[in-house]
Amino acid sequence: MRLSTLNSSHIDLLNETWPYGGSEHSRGYLATLVRSFPNACLLDSNGRLVSWSTFDPFGAMAHGYTLPEYRGRGCLNIVNRALAMHVHASGFPAYGNVALDNVRMQNLNEHWGYQRLGTCQHEGIQSIHGPVLVKLNWKGTGFKAGSWGKDFALGAKLQDHYWVFPANKDHRTMETFRLYASYKKMMLYFPIMEFSLRGKKDGCENCGQGGGAIFYNSSFFYNCYDSRALCKMDPDAMRLLRRELDAAAPASFNDIFSYKGVRYQDMDMAGDEKGLWMIYGSSKAKGNMVIRQVDPSNLKAGRRWNTTQPKPQVTNSFMICGVLYATRRVNATHEEVFYYYDTNAAQEGNMQIFMEKALPTVQSLNYNPNDGNLYMFNDAHLVYYNVTFKNHVSVISRRVQVAATTEGQGSDRAVGQNVVNNEVQADASKQDRISDLAHEDGSNTGNKAEYAVVHGYTM
After folding, report:
1. Alpha carbon 383 to chain centroid distance?
2. Mean pLDDT computed over every residue of the chain
3. DSSP per position, 109-136
4. CA separation for the pair 416, 405 (Å, rounded)
5. Which residue in 26, 111, 128, 365 is deepest, having the highest Cβ count within 10 Å?
6. What is the mean pLDDT of residues 221-229?
7. Do the beta carbons of residue 327 and residue 314 sit within 8 Å?
8. Cβ distance 352 to 116 under 8 Å?
9. Which residues have CB under 8 Å from 392's CB, separation 6+?
10. Whole-angstrom Cα distance, residue 311 to residue 315?
């Protein structure tokens, strides 16, 4: 076998074997990938395509496939390692997608040494890089409060969608949101949906209150207007669920225990690797922050953790791996992550990580476990950051050093082919022992699990 790259003669086979292919539209999409993005493949002695993988427009390795008669020989592993080395040498990270229901392929990726993104195999935040100032929210500078981002549920179906939910000028009423099918569509102000929660009789009882709203598993979750209730809005089904919170540790509302400098965010929703969360203050807790898990299917509030950190002293907060991180203002250009509460161990403490900001007030802050970014609504502007972690396992050096180069790179071509031939033979017996772990067929359409050979930075 020899390593090569895909060309136009391979597109029909890619379209036939892709679970979501078979149409002219899918063929055109695959042709664009082959023509415009890095890819790699293995060819047999007759030049027949055996195994392949390519990058998609979001910078992820995708569409990995091996013909059934060649499975169990480590072919896809070699193709992916060649791709990883190629993009890493150019200064880009390497990560990929596997369908969530393809558990065997997920297991095989982990056997190969890939790290599953959205896991908690680290020791907390090491640094926060940014900010990246994206743009002004679609309503304008007068709408300073609100929230934005992507779907914050791990493995979400709509990971490539964006949403923007600015509050009205009163900093209180969350009335109208927009959904975008992609980053490009958001940048062009071209939504697939713009929807108002205001009722037909001009009532706003189903509107949100404060900038603590979040989009999680294809639905919006927020504090219902002028109440102690939680609301869930499914924009696809146009269905709204509302639930009053229990009286065991009643959450404040109507700007009693909001964040410092931010109005009406008594209840702040968050999503992370562990699920859906609500952070709030209450009189019973003497204004200290309270953390509760929330069942996204029925809005029932679950276990409760009481902290010793007063909520009105905090400018905002977010959750990562079941750990609450709280921020405070340093000055007009910097925030400090100064406090944490680990619900896994019921421990709290202080820390010090500084983050720059484009504008003075942090209106909302949420971490997305799918892409490792923090999303901030910063005085009417959309901003994001990248988060790195302490002792986050990286296997790039071990994997890249044995990967082959792609065909067409001068004198390295023959060396690369020799490496591939040797690895196919050496891996054959080993792969036979683990071939029952997976069918070598990964897809990046629908629900996804992501794997990376470096930290999960999207491009």
Report:
1. 15
2. 82
3. HHHTTPEETT---SSSEEEEEEEEEEEE
4. 5
5. 365
6. 93
7. yes
8. no
9. 121, 122, 126, 455
10. 8
- Please report, as a single letter, which amino acid is at residue 322: G
Q: Is the dihedral of CA 307, 311, 313, 319 positive or negative?
A: positive
User: Can you tell me the distance from the alpha carbon of 293 to that of 278, in angstroms, rounded to the nearest whole number?
Assistant: 6
Summarised one tens digit per residue, pLDDT across range 415-456 is 233 333 333 333 333 333 333 333 334 443 334 444 333 322
Give the pLDDT score at 101.
Answer: 56
Structure confidence by residue, pLDDT tens digits, 374-385: 999 999 999 999
- Token readout for 379 is 């005085």
- What is the b/e burial string over 158-190, where b = at least 16 CB atoms within 10 angstroms of the residue's CB? bbbbbbbbbbbeebbbbbbbbbbeebebbeeee
Q: Cα(first)–Cα(last) distance of the chain, in Å?
A: 32
Element (H, E) at 178: strand 176-180
> Which residue is listed with tokens 């998609």?
56
Burial grade of 254 (CB within 10 A; 0-12, 13-18, 19 or more):
middle
Percent of the residues in the chain that have a pLDDT greater than 70, as a whole number: 81
For residue 131, cis peptide bond before it (omega within 30 degrees of 0): yes
What DSSP state is assigned to residue 86?
Answer: H
pLDDT(395) > 70: no
* CB burial readout 409-445, b (16+ within 10 A) else e: eeeebeebbebbeebbeebeeebeeebebbbbbbbbe
| CA–CA dist 314, 259 (Å, integer) | 6
Structural contact between residues 428 and 435, judged by C-beta atoms closer than 8 angstroms? no
Beta bridge partners of 368: 373
Give the mean model confidence (pLDDT) for residues 154-174.
92
What average pLDDT score do residues 107-119 get? 69
List Cα–Cα distances, 416 to 3, 81, 409, in angstroms: 7, 12, 9
Q: What are the backbone angles phi and psi of residue 157, rounded to the nearest 5°? A: -70, -35
Q: What are phi and psi of 184, to 5 degrees?
A: -60, -45
CA-wise closest residue to 281 among 326, 251, 249, 315? 251
